[in-house]
Design a protein that fits this description.
The protein contains 11 helices and 12 strands. It has an 8-stranded mixed β-sheet, sandwiched between helices. Strands 1-2 form a two-stranded antiparallel sheet. The relative contact order is 0.13. The chain is globular, with a radius of gyration of 19 Å. It starts with a strand and ends in a 10-residue tail after the last helix. By secondary structure, it is of the alpha/beta class.
Length: about 350
């Protein structure tokens, strides 16, 4: 079993919680379908000022976030005491997205009740729920956003998993910024259909719930989640709002093989998912799941082409792709594509 480490953590507002981290190398997962054992890459810390010291290929180097719009948005977020998943999850695209005035708000605090093996967000005991969170949507107005993404940590201790806060935030953004597209990236709400309906009733433009990985790896990657349950969340969201867009994504580089990737893509289409994102897993620290390999840009291009052949309206597939990367373009393209998408170069 994995070794677990628990540390006391003091948040920015002075609240004390506890942080849970694991050493995942000791957690066994079943071998791939062909029975071949998976080899994993050693963890290498990035050394500042030493190109290539982190062992990453050239195509995985992101620009250092900067720019006037980026700095403006960062200052606005801090002034309103808002959390962004861009920062908490150490997204490599933060500079590009913020400079395009697309921002992802993280509601329900920044402490998660689950301990997914890939995630850099703090795991522990959440702080008190802030019921005024939806009314901070004036940040979207101040930033002049045209596309706002609302996501959250898991709050399994709440009766509705935080669904009412999602709904309130959607409505507040609609009121503050008419015409701004709203996308939600939700937890699974433990499969609670009433919670899903609460979010859908607020009519987000896009309902996103990430499948994250292939089913064989769930025990290590998402130990408190269920593959089938996540698929049903997506199906139910589409049933509740057939005209709305549904979206999901997963990472590669955790030990999956192409056969499993293709099957996961089939499963998502079978559950009426419109938009698919595929990106490279990058290990945040030694206390996170090891990485099996780096996928080449040509392989991501192949996944994108295969996804379009299955009937996805939009497929975003690339080494640095994350769930909200080019989110405004994904929504726009999918709305203009009532039938199966066409792969582009």
């Amino acid at each position: 079993m994995a070794r677990r480490q628990i540390n006391i953590k003091v948040l920015d507002d002075g609240t004390k919680t506890f942080e849970v981290r694991h050493r995942w190398e000791d957690r066994p997962v079943p071998p791939p379908p062909d029975g071949t054992a998976t080899e994993y890459l050693p963890f290498r810390k990035q050394a500042r000022g030493l190109p290539g010291a982190h062992g990453r290929p050239e195509w995985l180097k992101a620009r250092i976030p900067d720019g006037e719009v980026y700095r403006d948005i960062k200052e606005t977020m801090r002034g309103l005491n808002l959390h962004t998943v861009c920062e908490e999850a150490r997204c490599p695209n933060i500079g590009e997205c913020w400079n395009n005035r697309t921002a992802t708000f993280m509601i329900l605090g920044n402490v998660c009740t689950r301990s997914c093996g890939f995630c850099a967000v703090l795991t522990g005991k959440p702080s008190e729920l802030d019921l005024d969170e939806p009314y901070r949507a004036d940040a979207a107005k101040q930033m002049g956003l045209e596309h706002a993404v609302i996501t959250s940590v898991n709050r399994d201790e709440l009766a509705d998993g935080g669904a009412s806060i999602f709904a309130g935030t959607i409505r507040a953004i609609r009121e503050e910024v008419p015409g701004c597209a709203v996308e939600v990236l939700t937890p699974d709400f433990k499969g609670d259909r009433d919670a899903i309906k609460t979010v859908i009733d607020a009519r987000p433009d896009t309902f996103n719930h990430n499948i994250e990985t292939v089913p064989r790896l769930y025990y290590a990657v998402r130990p408190q989640a269920k593959y089938g349950r996540s698929l049903e969340v997506l199906r139910h969201a589409k049933e509740l709002n057939p005209d709305g867009l549904t979206k999901s994504g997963f990472m590669v580089g955790l030990g999956e093989v192409e056969e499993e990737i293709h099957q996961t893509m089939h499963d998502l289409r079978d559950h009426n998912v419109d938009i698919l994102t595929i990106g490279q897993y990058l290990r945040p620290s030694e206390n996170h799941l090891p990485m099996s390999r780096y996928y080449k840009p040509q392989e991501f291009a192949s996944f994108r082409k295969y996804g379009f052949s299955l009937g996805f309206k939009h497929v975003e597939s690339g080494p640095l792709v994350r769930s909200s990367y080019h989110a405004h373009e994904q929504t726009s393209d999918a709305k203009q594509s009532p039938a199966a998408g066409v792969a582009s170069a």
